[in-house]
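sry for the spam today, last one i promise. C-alpha cells for design, 242 residues
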C-alpha cells in the first residue's frame, strides 16, 4: 500500500470524514483487518480563518508546509482535507520533494462528474466567499474546474448580498458544526441552491465539506448534490491500494 499525509483540521468533522472513508475503502478492497497507512496533521481552524481574514496567505500556507517538511520523506502523496485550504495548493506543491504528489480535489471531482454525470457541464457552487470567488487563482478550486482540460462552467450566487449571506452562514454557523446551523440559515442554503438550478446549474457542488452535514440531496430534489470531499476521500482510498 501507499502512504498518505492528510492535512486536516478545517474542520475536525471533515478530517474524521476523510479518515473514515479512506479506511472503509481500503477494508473493502483488501479485507477487514487492513487499514490505510496514514499520517495526520490537524490544524486549528480558528487560527487559519484569522490568517485568511488578515490576508496573510503565507502564514496560512505555513500551517501545512511546516508539517510537510517533517513528514514528506515518509509518504507517497499529500491530501488536503478541505476545499478552502486548496487556496494554498501551489505553495504545498512547491514544498513537496520529488516523487511525492498532491492529490488535488478539483481534479478528482472533475473526473468523478465526467464519469457519473457525463451530460453535466454547469456546476452550481455554494461555500465560503473565498472559494466561490476564487476563480482567478489557477491552483485553487474553481479555476481548475473551468480550465480547458476539464471545461466546466461554475455558477455562484448572483448578487453580492447573496454571496455575503452564504459566506456568513458558512463561517458563523456551518464551521461550528451542523448543530449550530439555524433553520433560517439552512432554508437560505436551500433557496440559494434552488436559485442556481433556476439559472441553469445541472448539479450543486458543496464548496465546503461541512455544508454536506446541512444541505442534502433531499433538500434540492432530483438535481445531483455533489460532496467533493467524500468523492476525494474515496479516490484516495483506492489510490492507497494501488
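last one done:
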Amino acid at each position: 500500500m501507499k502512504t498518505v499525509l492528510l492535512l486536516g483540521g478545517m474542520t475536525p468533522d471533515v478530517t474524521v470524514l476523510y479518515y473514515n472513508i479512506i479506511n472503509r475503502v481500503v477494508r473493502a478492497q483488501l479485507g477487514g483487518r487492513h487499514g490505510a497507512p496514514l499520517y495526520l496533521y490537524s490544524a486549528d481552524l480558528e487560527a487559519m480563518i484569522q490568517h485568511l481574514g488578515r490576508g496573510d496567505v503565507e502564514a496560512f500556507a505555513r500551517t501545512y508546509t511546516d508539517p510537510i517538511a517533517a513528514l514528506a520523506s515518509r509518504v507517497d502523496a499529500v491530501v488536503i482535507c478541505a476545499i478552502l485550504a486548496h487556496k494554498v495548493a501551489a505553495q504545498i506543491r512547491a514544498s513537496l520533494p520529488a516523487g511525492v504528489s498532491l492529490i488535488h480535489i478539483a481534479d478528482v471531482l472533475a473526473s468523478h462528474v465526467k464519469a457519473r454525470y457525463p451530460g453535466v457541464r454547469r456546476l452550481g457552487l455554494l461555500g465560503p466567499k473565498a472559494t466561490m470567488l476564487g476563480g482567478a487563482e489557477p491552483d485553487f478550486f474553481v479555476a481548475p474546474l473551468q480550465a480547458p482540460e476539464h471545461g466546466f462552467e461554475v455558477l455562484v450566487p448572483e448578487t453580492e448580498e447573496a454571496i455575503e449571506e452564504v459566506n456568513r452562514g458558512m463561517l458563523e454557523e456551518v464551521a461550528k458544526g451542523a448543530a449550530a446551523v439555524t433553520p433560517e440559515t439552512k432554508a437560505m442554503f436551500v433557496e440559494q441552491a434552488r436559485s442556481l438550478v433556476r439559472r441553469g446549474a445541472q448539479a450543486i457542488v458543496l464548496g465546503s465539506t461541512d455544508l454536506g452535514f446541512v444541505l442534502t440531496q433531499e433538500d434540492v430534489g432530483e438535481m445531483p448534490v455533489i460532496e467533493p470531499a467524500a468523492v476525494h476521500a474515496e479516490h484516495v482510498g483506492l489510490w492507497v491500494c494501488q
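The longest helix spans residues 12-30. ok im logging off now
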